[in-house]
Design brief:
The chain has 80 residues and is mainly α. It is built from 2 helices and 2 strands. It has a domain of 41 residues: Erythroid Transcription Factor GATA-1, subunit A (Erythroid Transcription Factor GATA-1, Chain A). The longest helix is centred in the middle third of the chain and has 12 residues. The chain is flat.
Length: 80
């Protein structure tokens, strides 16, 4: 079976928001070990948390999105 893989898209680091091909790195989806540890600290300190269990109706608004589009509209290089 001959599988042709598509290159992974450039994404923003969830912590510092720098854009790059972080999905190819060892700290994916973060740009570095530092950003990965900062995020872990936020989860452990309960700054990040899951407020309620996800249910199928939470995903209903996104079923019609075309593949490959960023639903948040953060495809550009601007910082929020």
């Amino acid at each position: 079976m001959n599988v042709v893989s598509q290159p992974l898209p450039k994404v923003r680091c969830p912590n510092c928001r720098k854009q790059g091909d972080w999905l190819n790195g060892p700290d994916a989806p973060f740009c570095s070990q530092r950003c990965k540890l900062i995020d872990l600290g936020k989860w452990l300190g309960e700054e990040h948390r899951v407020s309620e269990p996800l249910r199928p109706e939470h995903f209903a608004p996104f079923e019609e999105l075309p593949p490959g589009k960023d639903p948040d509209g953060t495809d550009n290089d601007e910082k929020p």
